[in-house]
Amino acid sequence: MADRTFCICWNWEHDAGFIRLLEAACASRGLGLIQVTPANLADSIRQLREGWLTFHGLLDRASDTDERFLEVVEWASDRGVYRINPYERARLQWDKAAVHIVLSHATHTPRTIILPPFDRVPELPPLDLAPLGESFCIKPAQGGGGDGVVVGATTLDEVVASRQEFAADRYLLQSMVRPADLNGRPGWFRVVHFTGRVFPFWWNPETHVYAPVTAEEEAGFGLGPLRSVSASIAWVCGLELFSSEIARTHDGLFVAVDYVNDPVDLRLRSETPDGVPDETVAELAAGLADLVRGGGPPL
Question: I need a labelling partner for 293 at 20 to 30 A (CA). Which of 6, 62, 106, 217 fits?
Fold first, then answer.
């Protein structure tokens, strides 16, 4: 019988490959794994209430899209269970405007103008868009998955129209970041950060295909700052596991473009062309199992 039990809440069908790797990692460590999904959520909550179910570690990959899972999250919080990416900390990262304000003091970020919600300030004072360049991005502060994002905007009319799509939300207007050409590749990267470990990938912003940054490439192209920028983001967000997009510009700056992605997209490369390499997901699964088996990160 396992001496510790790991609970994962998940509701995205494309997580199935990651779950298989997590099951294998837990089994090899004598760690029990409880899966709470939409199919067994009600029964799991009943068992938690009645004391028939318990666990020692939690990774929640469901409550951000389905609030019914919050009862499992709250049960764990009330009992001091070790939680990876605690909900109360993770939800703060959903506000891109708030994260930008803090992160812009820690690392390079795009030039940004933050606008109040349309519901509160329907008529904006005159805006000077010139500092953003010829074109810019429009992003709702609470948006996810690209919802409401306009890339390559050029006019104030586009800003006015966009603000009304999510009228209760703040909006960010951000300059377009132009990556350097690094031997035929755009200097655009997706970095996965896990408890201080950094997994940097070339990440084409058009194809979204991952390619691991090799040690030779990191040294040859001077990509070491990917690690320090990721560390700065980790310091700001306080999460154990997240991913970020970071671009290297023509003048050698490393700019955090997409700050904190949580939950991390862990689709497998073997199952979809724009998935994360299987060996990386397996390494993350093993690390997560080790965290729960050890009761959390070392102090």
Answer: 62
Coil, strand or helix: which one is 281?
helix
pLDDT of residue 3: 64
CATH number at residue 27: 3.40.50.1380
Task: Let me know whether 27 and 55 are in one domain.
Answer: yes
**CA pair distance 131, 127, nearest whole angstrom:** 10
Cα-based torsion angle of the residue sequence 234, 236, 239, 241 in order, rounded to the nearest 10 degrees: -30
CATH classification at residue 156: 3.30.1490.20
23: amino acid identity, one letter: E
b/e per residue 162-198 (b: at least 16 CB within 10 A): bbeebeebbbbbbbbbebbebeeebbbbbbbbbbeeb
DSSP readout, 78-140? HTT-EEES-HHHHGGGG-HHHHHHHHTTTSB---EEEE--TTT-SSPPP---GGG-SSEEEEE
Q: How do residues 227-265 score in pLDDT, each as one tens digit?
A: 999 999 999 999 999 999 999 999 999 999 999 999 999
Element (H, E) at 50: helix 41-50
pTM of the model: 0.92
Q: 126, 148, 175 — which closes off a domain?
A: 175
Domain extent at residue 243: 179-262
How many other β-carbons are positioned within 10 Å of the β-carbon of residue 250? 10
